[in-house]
What does this fold into?
Amino acid sequence: MNARVRHATVESTSPHAYSASTVCHVRPIDWEENASAAQLPPTYADLIEFEQSTHTVAARRTVCRENDLHDAVPVICAGWAAAVITLSDGSRQILSFLLPGDLVSTTLLFEPRSHCLVEAITEVRYRTFRRSELKGALLRHPESFDALSKAWIDEKVRADQLIVDLGRRTADERIARLILNLAERLAQRGMTATSGETPAIKMEFPLRQHHIADATGLTPVHVSKVLSEFRRSGLVEISDRSLTILDPARFRRTADMR
Amino acid sequence: MNARVRHATVESTSPHAYSASTVCHVRPIDWEENASAAQLPPTYADLIEFEQSTHTVAARRTVCRENDLHDAVPVICAGWAAAVITLSDGSRQILSFLLPGDLVSTTLLFEPRSHCLVEAITEVRYRTFRRSELKGALLRHPESFDALSKAWIDEKVRADQLIVDLGRRTADERIARLILNLAERLAQRGMTATSGETPAIKMEFPLRQHHIADATGLTPVHVSKVLSEFRRSGLVEISDRSLTILDPARFRRTADMR
DNA sequence: CGGCGACTTGAAACGTGTCAATTAGCGTGG
DNA sequence: CCACGCTAATTGACACGTTTCAAGTCGCCG
It folds into this structure.
């Protein structure tokens, strides 16, 4: 079901990981060399010890499928992925986008079963760690426990926010909030660049409009219309897989018009 | 901010807790006497020891407010409550309904800050436990850790399901799923009754239509229309704060039409 | 060159929201 | 006992936001 090779790279399909630094001229934290910087370091030294293997999957391929069983816990090192739930009629809902440094899901720390499909958006590199050993370390190191609970709370707050957005906000708000959320998370990772007096925020943006649609509960057609409107009114600029928030203040207002 | 009395009952405003047994003729688990049966027993003996106090709040009053700080972790003993997020324009989104035995939120185990308002729907009795001691016990007893992770996974799966429902399902599906979810959770607690050949499922149902609206991202007016349609087509019967699913099979089909 | 996927645009259909009027139930106080 | 005010729920007409359907552009790759 999953690779058992320790400290080994498997499935390398491309020499270079997706990197935000190429476009944004920002040096992102290097999740590749420094896995310990990920969300759940029991202690920096310990985590490395539990590493199981490193994997690379191409864009559009799956990292793991729904109901897959794994005794390994995956952490994204490079690239963007999405946690997706698919309904029987083919419609999809993206639960969250996974960025470098993200644990795929905190539930995977406790349970081998994946509750949703995880799909690579760009090429993705991820590492896996043995659940059993991680769990032991967690109980031995109280400070690692705090790191875990932080990840957990974060995941929960994000999910709750999405519930509110889908339940109570318009298409414009949902899309603007999605973009702002991603911008914030990328900024934390040093993967954005700013420029100008009302500092515009620039970032790599590998999402297709259908990803935005799947995340916001809208149709791709409507996403296209809303983004066009955003562009027309000078809020954002999108080109060549990169997005710039031209007027962050006004954009934040359209993201929360109540 | 919160009571500090140990093993003491405060704010008792009524002699009787809301109880499903009066209507459904079922004997529910007694969360009052047996707090240890709640979701997070470190060990049954230990938990009782950490009890801080018992509270009762009337219907429509708040159990805790958003951004409240508590060093106590609340567990519902009797009654129904809702975890709610309020937007600045007054619209509300219910994140989850809390039933007897539910920990209000697993994040409260790790963090004193409440991320949402918790509001009593019926009169609610709840107990609180000291976070600091609970946390210590959690680390000492690995088996309690498993109970906790089960609660966390459950909370997460439920939240993810709600995201899918709000993002991708119609009003009819959302409402039917909400009712079925509640029926399932009540059944686990022995708070439902069945009767007939295609066994109809009966339960107490204290929700107002505006609760359903807030939980499903709809308006009360539309909820009324959908429920009327359900009634007209013989799917459910609602009267006197009690709800009966007359045709569970057909109702499940309307809850998942894809 | 042809085909394919991503995106755009417009017209029409549909689901849900908004507004308004009405009824029923319930507790309070005269 | 009834009148009153309040909240919950119902119903119909209409408005609005989003989806659906369809046609068309553009860039990319075989």
Q: What stands out?
A: Chain B has a mean pLDDT of 84. The interface with chain A takes residues 85, 87-89, 91-93, 95, 105-107, 109-111, 115-116, 139, 142, 145-146, 149-150, 152-153, 155-157, 159-160, 162-164, 166-168, 216-217, 256, 258 of chain B (CB under 8 Å). The longest helix of chain B spans residues 142-168.
